[in-house]
From TrEMBL:
Belongs to the UPF0718 family. PANTHER family: PERMEASE RV2963-RELATED (PTHR42775:SF1). Keywords: Cell membrane, Membrane, Transmembrane, Transmembrane helix. It comes from Paracoccus benzoatiresistens. Signal peptide: none annotated. This is Permease. The keyword Transport does not apply.
């Protein structure tokens, strides 16, 4: 365990980088213990760490993902039904795009291929909510129990959400054009060099897509961490406040960011004593229920199905938020 802890600190948390940045901040005449110096250290350390980890993780995960094009994923899910199919769809969602807007084209393809709504919605919820990169990044900022707990609850929301929507029999609430989208039956194959090139291109594309959200998220995190008094944060979002989880969920929905942009904010909030459930609710609302992705989803489903989706996922997020606030001490 001591070796594992050392590797976790050096390669994921990058404590050496934090120390190095702290020395650099002191070298330019700022005190790392002051508000300004601490903000600069927090910002530089988190930005460099997140982008370093993201580049490595996206490359590795994209290489794995190159073995699972949409046609193969549809083939794996095709002909399956029941709870096992929902679980499989949620798990496959962890290997796919890193935001909800890019998951919607896959949702259209799955629906056009005739997959049941239960399966497609389990996939749609899981895809932006849980991915392998977020697990590693969560572990780098918090710890492995929190990272694994986030994955577990995210998959539970995806499985239960998809199952409930499937039981409601709302197939007629999908836009008519979705059923007529051409579906390719060919499974793409790549040579090893092509997979490496694909992984490299994915790093460039995803970093280009998320860099601004990461910078904004780290900036907000630095402000919370160093400038907003803990008393103010706990008065608004403390574990003893019944409204903390609903408020965090409501604040997260209008935002549009990948999970990578929410992590520094979550880190700062936990550091200020905000309950783990409140933080998880905020992260899940941003990634699964962001307003831009709901606007895109409205183009492919009718309002009753969209509202059902929002209500089911919101209920899951709120339940998880309240539950985890009661057991925060297990993880921190």
């Amino acid at each position: 365990m001591s070796i594992f802890g050392w590797m976790n600190d050096q390669f994921l948390r990058m404590t050496w980088l934090n120390d190095l940045v702290g020395q650099g901040v002191a070298g330019i005449g700022l005190d790392p213990a002051s508000r300004l110096g601490g903000s600069v250290q927090f910002f530089v350390y988190d930005v460099v760490k997140i982008f370093l980890l993201l580049s490595v993780l996206i490359f590795a995960i994209s290489y794995v993902r190159s073995h699972f094009p949409p046609e193969r994923t549809r083939a794996i899910l095709g002909g399956r039904s029941g709870l096992g199919a929902n679980v499989l769809a949620a798990l496959l969602g962890t290997l796919t795009p890193f935001c909800s807007c890019s998951s919607i084209p896959l949702f259209i393809g799955f629906t056009a291929a005739g997959l049941p709504l239960a399966i497609t919605f389990s996939f749609l919820i899981s895809s932006p909510l849980v991915d392998l990169a977020s697990v590693i990044l969560l572990a780098s900022i918090f710890n492995w129990p929190i990272a694994l707990a986030y994955v577990a609850v995210g998959l539970v929301v995806a499985v239960i959400g998809g199952t409930v929507i499937g039981k409601l029999g709302m197939e007629n609430q999908v836009a008519d054009f979705v059923r007529t989208v051409p579906v390719s039956g060919n499974v793409e194959t790549m040579a090893r060099t092509q997979r490496l090139a694909y992984a490299r291109d994915q790093v460039i594309e995803i970093i280009h897509r998320v860099w601004l959200y990461v910078l904004i998220g780290v900036g907000i995190g630095a402000a919370i961490h160093n400038w907003i008094p803990q008393d103010t944060i706990t008065a608004l979002l403390g574990q003893d406040k019944w409204w903390a989880v609903p408020l965090a969920t409501a604040v997260g929905i209008p935002m549009y960011a990948d999970i990578f942009g929410t992590l520094p904010i979550a880190e700062a909030l936990v550091g200020k004593g905000v309950g783990l459930g409140t933080v998880l609710a905020f992260m899940m609302a941003v990634t699964a229920l962001s307003l831009p992705s709901m606007i895109m989803l409205k183009r492919v489903v009718r309002m009753p199905l969209l509202l059902t989706f929002i209500c089911v996922v919101s209920a899951g997020i709120l339940t998880i938020g309240f539950a985890f606030n009661e057991i925060t001490h297990w993880f921190i």
